[in-house]
Amino acid sequence: MNLLYLGLLLFVTLLTTLYLASSKAIFAFSDWTFHAARVEEIYLNLKSGSFFTFIAARTFHNTGAASFLFYPYIFFYPWAFLRFILSPVNAFYAWYALVTFATATISYFSMKAYSKKSLASFIFSLVYTFAPYRLYLGGAVFGEYLAVTFLPLLFLGIYEVLWGDKKKWYLLAISGALVAYAHILSVFLSLEFAVILFIIKLITSRGISKDRIKSLLLSAGVCVFLVLPVIVPFFTDFIGQGLSSAKPSISYTMGPRYLLLNSFSAQKGWKLSFMLMLTILTAWAFIKSRRNWIIYGLGLFACFLTTRYFPWKLTAGTPFEMVQLTARYLSYASLFLTILFALGSSSVLEEHVTGRKKLALSCSLAVFMALFSLSSLSVYRDTLKHVQDMPKTSANSTQPAPFKRLRDYNYYNQFNYKILFGAFDYMPKSSLTSVQKQNSLLMHQAYLNGKTLTLSPLIKANQISYQVKSEKAADVDLPVIAYKHTTVSVNGQKHAFRRGNRGTVVVGLKRGQNTVTVGYKASPVFYLSIFISILSWLALLIYLVKFKAKYAQ
User: Which of 124, 173, 174, 314 is deepest in the core (most CB within 10 A)?
Assistant: First the structure.
């Protein structure tokens, strides 16, 4: 049955993706330009022979912003590699299909390991993968979109360590690492629910065994080794460097009425599906086990967290403000409520369906979910028909990227606009004290001898060069951000520099024509962290092979 169900999941994946891709266009909204610029930088660096990307030399208005150091990007490499064989628009939709099918597959096998029921796993995978909120994330919010792929495996790992087979601690280590490589904030959100589950375990079981504590600590320790390349840059380049990050604040909450009524519409967005809303309203009537009551409670609590009735004002000045948008909890509400929906609906169906009817039922469910997803995506398709193409703008424009349509022929227009959300993330706080400073970076403005110069950068991977002519010896303040491991050379010779009041590179020049090159050289600790991480993944793989062989006996 596994092959049949995976085939049906692939069918729904391809149908929904082809429906979007047939538009031959992309709607650039929300975080799209931020992530598209990161993928473009990776692709161009790969094209020039450089595998690693540390700073934005070609995108982000050539400011040298280090979003690559502090925002994981490993799962963007498939998208970047697809750019070598497909057009920009088709490369995105091919990547979209890969992530969707990966989500469906991981969801199916995670639920199968938890429930031991194939039909329930199939229903879970369909409803979870093609949930309206996840479809919304797939349009532009790619960090969270990627993290959602691994949440079923993560909570399976938590379940195994706390209640199931504690010898499967590796599931928690692997899934935690995968979430971290996708979206750091999702790690924080997942930890919230992990702590709640740990407390529930202590209460319901009146404690926890030493063996389970050891498994929990082992999974956490191994996870840290697996994600060292994500952690290390924060210690080597962020802490104590006066850098900014995404602004912590709770900027939007929903009302229960909005969540309830909106969930019965067909559109994708900040909502649950009508199936999960019905689960909320009816699940209490058929839940029998304490385990399912816990799942139901977690689903309701996740929904409560999205609303304004949770006292979010009390979180002011705490790490909980990092959530920013409470709609993020919809991913967790979808996860928990879909488990109940899948278990309940599959039990009812299996009582009345056997043999060939079960095959027909499975195909019917796949077709229904495909049609439901197409209905959710139809508004996006309609938007692509009516929104205007993104127009050209100057290379150093300070105009924010508009919500416009991208096609292959105008795809590159987006990179000349100011990135709407995240253009100044991970820059020195001194860069952000005024709009004038921010715009001066976007417009490639340098300062020399009291004069403002607009310079044209010469670009290589992780490297930005400027030709600067000075009538006398003087300091030049370049429009490139200075980080702890930034490097500077003048006329091919390594040169000292300081950080100016814009957080930028300031270097002393001699009289005459000078070529100033700003680059980034990662700390040796970073490369050591990659080496340790690779060894850890290999060691874990060897352990799994031996464990499976022993387990099979």
Answer: 124
307-323 pLDDT, tens digit each: 888 888 888 888 888 88
| Three-state DSSP state, 163 | coil
And the tokens for 160?
């195994």
Contact between residue 129 and residue 103 where contact means Cβ atoms under 8 Å apart = yes
> What is the spatial distance between Cα 345 and Cα 91, in angstroms, rounded to a whole number?
37
> What pLDDT was estimated at residue 553?
56
Burial of 504 (0-12, 13-18, 19+ CB in 10 A): buried
The answer to whether the CB of 338 falls within 8 A of the CB of 129 is: no
Residue 18 tokens read as: 């082809």
Question: H helices of 163-239, where?
Answer: 170-182, 184-204, 210-226, 228-233
Nearest C-alpha neighbor of 493 from the set 480, 482, 508, 473: 508
Q: How far is CA 54 from each of CA 27, 60, 71, 89, rounded to the nearest angstrom?
A: 28, 13, 10, 25
pTM greater than 0.85 (yes/no): yes
How many other CB atoms are there within 10 angstroms of residue 537's CB atom? 15
CA atoms of 332 and 310, how far apart (whole Å) = 16
Amino acid 41: pLDDT:
97
Rg (CA), the chain: 25
Structure tokens given for 199: 């407390």
Q: Are strands 463-470 and 404-406 parallel, antiparallel or unpaired?
A: unpaired
DSSP line for 245-297? -SPP---B-B-HHHHHHHTTSSS-SSS--HHHHHHHHHGGGT--SHHHHHHHH
Q: Which two tokens stand for residue 237?
A: 């380049």
Which stretch of DSSP H or E encloses residue 299?
helix 290-306
Which of 411, 432, 506, 499 lies closest to 466 in space, CA to CA? 506
CA dihedral angle for residue 6, residue 10, residue 16, residue 19, rounded to 10 degrees: -160
The candidate with the shortest Cα–Cα distance to 184, out of 154, 239, 153, 143, is 143
